[in-house]
Design a protein that fits this description.
Strand content: under 5%
Low-confidence stretches: none
Helix content: over 70%
Largest sheet: 2 strands, antiparallel
Distance between the termini: 18 Å
Number of helices: 12
Radius of gyration: 18 Å
Number of domains: 1
Number of strands: 2
Strand order of the largest sheet: 1-2
């Protein structure tokens, strides 16, 4: 259940992010600090009930892992939101949907080594579908923001592996609370935004996407704990399919035939891997 909740809230959050950054044209140096402030505060509400911290978190091993996790998070968040602002929703999602696949491969190599070969076959086929969707006249058609998104995908996947390790000593809520708090402090000092100038309607939208973000990340962390990184990541690949449907209906974005074909192939890969890996 946790992975499915994360999938739906992730899709909805991306649409709201897109509205804020493109329709409302909110500047990134203001949006990102305010977003992480709300993420931190909303997660803080859950801390008294679901926040658990083991004293082992202060072991040098976990401190190093946590530091590396924060570095990865800072890097990918910058490139992620730049890409969300610059790219159309379906192009953005086609790049981002590579992230679960990369995560699956890293998890299979580093933390879940007894993975099924069918899972790897599905990952390769879905990756080829992603490449196909961006080919035009025998070369890649990826913008500068698109390349930034590819870099974000790499660091997102690396952070997920580190997050899985940190869940050994922190509950999902505690991990996300501490993580968002540190990232907020960094961005508020780095960007120094004029938060008071944020319009009330924009603040309400940011609060909405923050609530979706907390629901997505916390349930995803619980998915990592209960089902493992690979299975949770597989389900999360469904999120782009939901985004395609919503963006076409709501944002009136045109879907290229290659995008539709790639989405169908990736969906088929999810079904294939699920049937043969978990039967």
């Amino acid at each position: 259940m946790f992975p499915f909740i994360a999938t739906v809230t992730q899709a909805a959050g991306i649409i709201v992010d897109k509205i804020i950054l493109t329709r409302r044209r909110m500047e990134l140096h203001v949006y990102i600090p305010v977003l992480f402030l709300f993420l931190f505060l909303l997660t803080g509400i859950l801390m008294p009930f679901l926040g658990k911290i083991s004293l082992d978190v202060f072991h040098p091993y976990y401190l190093i892992i946590f530091f590396l996790m924060i570095i990865c998070a800072l890097i990918w968040n910058v490139f992620y939101y730049k890409g969300a602002q610059a790219e159309k929703v379906h192009e953005f999602e086609l790049i981002i949907m590579f992230q679960p696949l990369l995560t699956i491969l890293l998890a299979a190599i580093l933390i879940e080594k007894n993975t099924n070969v069918h899972l790897l076959i599905a990952s390769v086929l879905a990756s080829l579908a992603l490449i196909f969707s961006h080919l035009k006249k025998n070369h890649f058609e990826i913008s500068a923001a698109g390349w930034g998104l590819i870099l974000a995908v790499v660091f997102i996947s690396m952070e997920i592996i580190l997050q899985k390790i940190m869940l050994e000593v922190l509950s999902p809520v505690a991990l996300y609370f501490i993580r968002t708090g540190i990232i907020f402090l960094f961005f508020i000092l780095f960007y120094r935004p004029r938060v008071r100038q944020v319009a009330n309607n924009n603040a309400l939208l940011i609060l909405t996407t923050s609530a979706l973000g907390v629901a997505q990340m916390v349930t995803k962390f619980y998915g990592f704990e209960v089902y493992g990184v690979i299975y949770t990541s597989l389900i999360l690949i469904l999120s782009p399919i939901l985004v395609y449907i919503i963006s076409t209906i709501w944002l009136h974005e045109h879907l290229r035939p290659r995008t539709i074909i790639a989405a169908l192939v990736i969906l088929a890969c999810i079904v294939y891997a699920t049937i043969f890996n978990f039967r």
